[in-house]
UniProtKB/TrEMBL annotation:
The keyword Metal-binding applies. SUPFAM superfamilies: Ribulose-phoshate binding barrel. CDD domains: RPE. It is an enzyme of class 5 (isomerase). InterPro entries: Aldolase_TIM, Ribul_P_3_epim, Ribul_P_3_epim-like, RibuloseP-bd_barrel. It catalyses: D-ribulose 5-phosphate = D-xylulose 5-phosphate. It comes from Actinokineospora soli. The keyword Transport does not apply. Binds 1 divalent metal cation per subunit. Pfam families: Ribul_P_3_epim (PF00834). The lineage of its organism: Bacteria, Bacillati, Actinomycetota, Actinomycetes, Pseudonocardiales. It comes from the Bacteria. This is Ribulose-phosphate 3-epimerase. Substrate binds at S5, H61, G138, F139, G140, G141, D171, G172, G173, G193, S194.
Length: 215
């Protein structure tokens, strides 16, 4: 799956930018609060508007503090997938997942590049998506950190041997040059911001990424 990130789109034309990525599986929406990460983007009101403006399922990536409190709103609004950061969860990570699912969303858990997978393996049984960050969260257009591929491989083994129904997603620095390594390591869903919206034809960029990942 390919999930273009609207972080690299024109925020004044979000409906058109969503329509510009034909064939995208999910539309990745980076919610940043200027506390969990040193950047501020958009929040629930804009997500609600975007939900009305596109049929592409929204993949909301919450880079915010206290997701225990705020994530549920995105699920209730109708986001397809709501991903919280493991590092930001205050209470019981299983309760967060349970609430998201009860509100009709898929529950996602994200790990920053330096966050190990091991402590989260058991918790992942309650989640639908594992979002592995391949850059430090906060900004688009950064260089892919190849060291995270070991974590992707470990996650792939864990999902396959444990027969978990978890989608392994990667986010950060994915482009024509890096996507094949990530695909080989076992990624199911690729987020790409600058590689899609920085291209002259974003729909073609989505198709090209998909082709490379399948090679
Ligand atoms: C970064 C965001 C990413 C970002 C990726 O914190 O989570 O989703 O949009 O942008 P690129 O693909 O340009 O690295
Ligand atoms: Zn993201």
């Amino acid at each position: 799956m390919i999930a273009p990130s609207i972080l690299s789109a024109d925020f004044a034309r979000l409906a058109e930018e969503a329509a510009a990525v034909k064939g995208a599986d999910w539309l990745h929406v980076d919610v940043m609060d200027a506390h969990f990460v040193p950047n501020l983007t958009l929040g629930l009101p804009i997500v609600k508007s975007l939900l009305k403006a596109t049929d592409i399922p929204l993949d909301c990536h919450l880079m915010i503090e206290d997701p225990d409190r705020w994530a549920i709103g995105y699920a209730e609004a109708g986001a397809h997938n709501v991903t919280v950061h493991a590092e930001a969860i205050v209470g019981d990570p299983r309760a967060v997942a349970r609430d998201l699912r009860a509100a009709g969303a898929k529950a996602g858990l994200s790990l920053k590049p330096g966050t190990p997978l091991d402590p989260w393996v058991e918790v992942l049984r309650d989640y639908d998506t594992l979002l592995i960050m391949s850059v430090e969260p906060g900004f688009g257009g950064q260089a892919f950190i190849p060291e995270v591929l070991d974590k992707v491989r470990a996650a792939r083994r864990m999902v396959d041997t444990g027969h978990l129904k978890v989608v392994i997603e990667i986010d950060g620095g994915i482009n024509d040059d890096t996507i094949d390594q990530a695909a080989e390591a076992g990624v199911d869903c690729f987020v790409a911001g600058s590689a899609v919206y920085g291209a002259a034809d974003p729909s073609r960029a989505v198709a090209a990424l998909r082709e490379r990942a399948a090679q």
